[in-house]
Amino acid sequence: MDAAQQEATARARELQRTWYGEPLGTLFRRLIDDLGLNQARLAGVLGLSAPMLSQLMSGQRAKIGNPAVVQRVQLLQDLARQVVDGSVSAAEATERMEEIKKSQGGSVLTNTTQTTNSSGAPTVKRVVREIQSLLRSVAAASEILEAADALAPTHPELAEFLRVYGAGRTSDAVAHYQSHQS
């Protein structure tokens, strides 16, 4: 690889760090390890071609262009955390990965039967996942926890919000959300 290619790869990885919290190679390798996948299976679950996944991992390509794929990445990250902490079994994880693979992702307008209740309002879980997704798109969990620690002495409620939504489990965030509704 020549100097120009190395510079382009480094620039792509830095953009990935900004957009996704870390280089995609690191993120995808962790998903592969935590979920017991290979690259081809990960590509299939995400809805990417194997060459595209490889380009994203190596830094030859910086951005995931399809918002549905970005959402699947976030769903897989949540699932991987649950597998690592033991709250989801390997068999359950395999089943959930099939659901993630079929998910359309993207806007609230897709798959309205799952994302809204009978009044047409988004479900609590959907709102919580959107908040989590937004927070996790601007910073890695470790950075969010660091920010929460910095805020805790003067703004404990904000610190709790960051911890729960930025680095916590979806079920805990749903409970937090529900406890703060009037």
Automatic annotation (TrEMBL):
Q: Where is the composition biased (Polar residues)?
A: 104-121
Ranges where the record places region Disordered: 102-121
Question: Which GO molecular function entries does the Swiss-Prot or TrEMBL record give?
Answer: DNA binding
Q: Which InterPro entries match?
A: Lambda_DNA-bd_dom_sf
- Tell me where on the tree of life, at the top rank, the source sits: Bacteria
Record-linked SUPFAM superfamilies: lambda repressor-like DNA-binding domains (SSF47413)
Q: Which UniProt keywords apply?
A: DNA-binding
Q: This chain belongs to which protein, by name?
A: DNA-binding protein
Q: Organism source for this protein?
A: Streptomyces thermospinosisporus
